[in-house]
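User: My collaborator sent over this chain with a note saying "see what the structure looks like." That's all I know about it. Can you take a look?
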Amino acid sequence: MNTDRPITLLVCALGGEGGGVLAEWLVDTAIAAGHSVQSTSIPGVAQRTGATTYYIEVFPRPDAELGGRKPVFSLSPVPGALDLLISSELLETARQIGNGMSNPGRTQVISSSNRTLTTAEKMQLGDGRARSEVLMGVLRAQSQAAWLLDMQALAQQAGTVISAVLMGAIAASGVLPFEAEAYRATIRAGGRGADASLRGFDAAHAALQALRAQRQAVGEAVSAALAQTASAPAPADPAWLQSFPEPARALVALGHARVLEYQDGRYAQLYLQRLQRVMAAERAGDPAAANGHATTAEAARHLALWMAFDDIVRVAELKCRASRHERVRTEVRAGPADLVRVQDHFKPGVPELAAMLPSGLADRLLRWERKRMAGGKPALALPVHLPSHTVVGLLALRALAACKRLRPMGSRYAQEQALIERWLAAVEHGARTHPALGREIAACGRLIKGYGATHDRGQHNLLHVIDHLAARATFETPAARADAIAAARQAALADDSGKALDRALAQHGAPPRPVREQPIHWVRQRPGGRAGEAGHEVR
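Assistant: Without extra context I'll predict from the sequence alone. Here is the result:
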């Protein structure tokens, strides 16, 4: 490092993470060590659309060696002229790299691997999250060295805020010419909360040093492995997995594991049988595999998610897991001797109860509920507050979770399987007709998500696209039909109200979705009174 120019650091922190405290700590550490330093900051924007940035310049030589001269500092960072870019959130790091702040030949990048989703990501009906692996690839490609730590987890384990963890990572990077004890002394001088901050500092310092040692060891091991002429054969995939094409195997394996954990081995075998049908149809329509087995891969992803649909049994199973209770204790920062009380809230309605009954009984119960609601009564629901930290509460959850053996006899199971078969039949027909058509119909499985009204709306949209765009509407070529289905799927994911989907359907010659019956609640209001004081009626 050039000792005649300042060391430049850019710190990016979200609101409430103590970025200002961190900047003060760094300035105090430099001053205590006898170095000239300057810090400026630019506030971020509310509602998670940008982090607050703190720009710090430290002269690498102490003032005693400058003979009375004073260094000249800049008030703002210069793109490509940073020695260290450190951020508490992965997308914020990538944002700064996109602004040109990182120089692959000069800048070390330290980032937390955890995500705090932006407002734009949360607004999407589909999966609007930026892919973490892509962001990590940007960090590695655009930095001299990239170090990734789960700083949020380290802060929670230490019982402190993330600023102390960032401080420990900066100290371990070696960019600034200070010993670790100098940083610790600054933290101790802060008074209240210093012990927790020191725990966070030490955890991050040790984690980054371990990463550096690990990277060095990996590099040496790779060099030794490349020097060897013979290598051990890779472990073979299970026989059931080898029957699938290589591009789809990872997704098939994950889907199989998910369905097996959700129900049982027989259900997992049904998953494989369904995928084998899709694979056979794709090979018939694309013998040369020019499409890269994309239809089978898409079907493997969405079929597993659909087959593992959420119901009250699944909710109970997830809530009584030991990992869930450990996560709760971690989130509330409970110590080993602390008692944590957990109240789980359920409000099952008639549809949830009918889902576990055989079809005949379920239909009768649902007809009774519809008759009640048509008479002006609200939907029946049973609010339950279950203390799952108690023996009785946990046993109740486990008893409900054990009902998954009865799931195949329930009406919801039969309904979901019938709808899955309708979708798969369309996928198989499309795959035999044209590779792109099969892939787009398989990708429509993405419309199935969530539970309750969201799940029902996704099924309704999917079936309408299959019944009209995939079957009845007239197109010049199968590729044009595939493009229309892709446009309809994107419209359905972009608009919760369904208006964009209706426009896309009409644009391609398909009828809009039929208007679904919805109850209207009329609320009487007395003059000068509040709504609802005199009761209500429903029509």
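A starting point for your reply to your collaborator: The longest helix spans residues 194-227.
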